[in-house]
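Worked example 2:
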Amino acid sequence: MTSDPVILILEDERAQILSLRAQLAGLGKLAEFMDPERALEHLRTHPCDAAIVDVGMPRSSMDGLAFLRALRQFDRDLAVIIRTGSESDQIADGAIEMRAIRRLVKAKATLAELRASTREAIAETRERRETTRRARDSQETQAKLVEALGAYDLRLAAADVHRGLVHALRNQLTALSALAAVLQDDAAAAGSRAALQHARQSAELVGSMVNSLNAFLDSPFGDPNSDSRAAVNTCLDALRQFFRGAQQWAAEGKSVQLRALLSDTLVDCAPLEFVNGIRHLVEYALQHAGPGGEIALSAAIAHSPEQIAGRLAQSAYVLNREAVRPGHPYVVLRTTGFAPALSPEEVRDAFAFGPQSGRTGNLNVLGQVLSAARGAVLLQRPAGASLALEIFLPVAL
């Protein structure tokens, strides 16, 4: 339930405060002040929903416009109504500059106008504060997403190193197992029962370790893509938030438009790898977009073999063509908005020979994701149009 509004009144005449108290009855709680300094101190620690401020306060240390200027140093959302006995344009201009929403001339303002203006100020303040809160929360969320997505490469690199070490350990154990078999044969030929027992125990121990490692590497824990599926729309929404928080591209006047599927669909790709790979794709496109360019990423589904064959036939290059199964449905992520000067050959080479590391726009990362997910890349350049990329990812059935 919405709490009662709090209306601050700043007037240096007691009679004016009593008059306003009667005129504003029923609109909310009143915080009444005759001293601007005390009113400012109150506002620093007690949020209000509206303020009615007298401009001319000769008995005080500052007038109403100076009060507004001081207020805006720490609160830009509070809606303020200024009251004055003058119709001076200079006063009106100063009030507008300090984001006052209304000026009421004391001798002319009616009771209805005062009450209507106060209601408007309360609504304006609450709307401003909600907008500010959402912006603050959005910025915090975006910052966390930027940090999280920026760390994906490091996490993936650590996971690759771990899997590589486990594979290397299995190879070493396999070599030890072979050596234990040789020791067994030698011990049997020499007739040494102690050596034969030692060799058998060694072979059993190493064999057990190799079997355990094989079971680990064949399980989902050994392969992060195994038995892991990404929800396309959920991942695209995370990317949308990420690019809203990426100030680099906004500073260059570049933007990203993402269009999701009509209903969310799972693809045979780990969510982490999906988000990371598509992020690099969009960043690569942004790097090669012209000033103020807009990159569009739209998702669709290709069901029929005819649709898939048609897209393959229209493409200048198809990377990982052998992974495409015509009878299988695919989610197609189409990216457009590249600079016209960029050729399909340059993009193809970026996938194949791009840097093995890099935090931004590294197509090599996407290539690894597609290879693991049995996806493909289609490079197209329609006549007279900019380059288009289509990413094929198999739908999880």
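The chain has three domains: 6-140, 152-217, 230-394. The chain is about 50% helix and 15% strand.
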